[in-house]
Amino acid sequence: MKRVYNFSAGPSMLPLQVLEKAQEEVVNYRNSGMSVMELSHRSGLFTDIITEAEKLLRELMAIPEGYKVLFIQGGASQQFATVPMNLLGKNGKADYVNTGSWSKKAIKEAKKFGTIRVIASSEDDNFTYIPAVDRSMIDPEADYVHITTNNTIEGTAYLEIPDTGDVPLVADMSSNILSEEIDVSKFGLIYAGAQKNIGPAGLTVVIIREDLIGRAPENCPAMLDYKTHSESGSLYNTPPTYGIYMAKLVFEWLKSLGGIKEMEKINRKKAQILYHALEESSIFKSPVRKDSRSLMNIPFVSDSTELDAAFVKEAQSKGLETLKGHRSVGGMRASIYNAMPIEGVQALVTFMNDFETNYEQ
Ligand code: PLP
């Protein structure tokens, strides 16, 4: 069987054990004579799957009482609009931090619904760092503060979550959810598209503090109102059933590894191997400031676009897939989400070293 190391930013690799388990069960799930894809979302078998998925996620992230977990559709991009539609109150104000392309999209969408202030930005330096945010910068009358905890394209991440006091903190955690331990109680709302650390694309996870539910205006479409999904246990309409099943398998895999604490150790090791190789390299370097480096997405550049292209092409022939950087940063980007094994990162570093030796000759 051919498998490659896929460094794609998303959809990304899934753990092999998860794919094998899904393969085993795909035609006849638990002797039902049906695939999970064919089960009614109101059946007992599917109820067990969604209940277990939520239970495991709560356990893995230590989600406190007083928070709801919603399994919905629309991707993180839909949340860019759903968040302001639900959370902007009579003041209609929110504060955003602009740390890259995805933040910008969130800001653009939110501006359709209220008065949006950008309280900090790293656009001045091509988003190569995370700007400082402290309580004094936040409007105490804002309905929420929005951050992107990991910037998938630029390869930056918050090393510390800002303290927003009484103003609820909303986070787009699409590209680093489940990668390291976080204190959920610091957030009012967390959302994430599934297709990096959770499962296949098509599922969106929202973790929301209960007091933030039920604030949407009367004319909010039912599908975009958190209350709808909260009251129906994510079963208002047909949810992405197979995606939820796959997420459950991923959560089981994470638990079997020892949970997020162990996953974080592995992720730190993987990132350290790659950042160290970049420090040592005479050709490639990280464009990101040291105090803002992501564990999940690691861009690197040389000073020649021809060399970058040759690297990406040769890497692909060695089973190292999708290393081309995003067009806004250039060069390469290695996305090393939870499912990327340490061997994948080691293979990349070995290839980098060989490439460099050949180049120098
Ligand atoms: N936010 C971040 C940080 C992302 O990385 C992405 C996709 O890569 C998105 C939002 C958009 O997610 P979706 O495609 O689920 O709408």
Automatic annotation (TrEMBL):
- Positions binding pyridoxal 5'-phosphate in this chain are 76-77, 102, 152, 172, 195, 237-238
Which Enzyme Commission number(s) are on file for it?
A: 2.6.1.52
Q: What class of enzyme is it?
A: transferase
| Domain named Aminotransferase class V: residues | 4-348
Cofactor: record remark: Binds 1 pyridoxal phosphate per subunit.
Q: Which UniProt keywords apply?
A: Amino-acid biosynthesis, Aminotransferase, Cytoplasm, Pyridoxal phosphate, Serine biosynthesis, Transferase
**Cofactors named for this entry:** pyridoxal 5'-phosphate
Reaction it catalyzes: 4-(phosphooxy)-L-threonine + 2-oxoglutarate = (R)-3-hydroxy-2-oxo-4-phosphooxybutanoate + L-glutamate; O-phospho-L-serine + 2-oxoglutarate = 3-phosphooxypyruvate + L-glutamate
Q: Which residues bind L-glutamate?
A: 42
Q: Which GO terms describe its molecular function?
A: O-phospho-L-serine:2-oxoglutarate aminotransferase activity
Give the matching PROSITE patterns.
AA_TRANSFER_CLASS_5
In terms of superkingdom, the source organism counts as: Bacteria
Q: Where in the cell is it found?
A: Cytoplasm
Name positions with the PTM N6-(pyridoxal phosphate)lysine.
196
A Pfam entry, by short name: Aminotran_5
Q: Which CDD domains match?
A: PSAT_like
What's the stated role of this polypeptide? Answer: Catalyzes the reversible conversion of 3-phosphohydroxypyruvate to phosphoserine and of 3-hydroxy-2-oxo-4-phosphonooxybutanoate to phosphohydroxythreonine.
| HAMAP family assigned | SerC_aminotrans_5
Q: Could you give the subunit structure recorded for this chain?
A: Homodimer.
Q: Which NCBIfam families match?
A: PRK05355.1, serC_1
Q: Which family does the similarity line name?
A: Belongs to the class-V pyridoxal-phosphate-dependent aminotransferase family. SerC subfamily.
**Stated name of the protein:** Phosphoserine aminotransferase
Organism expressing this protein natively:
Oceanobacillus longus
Gene behind this chain?
serC
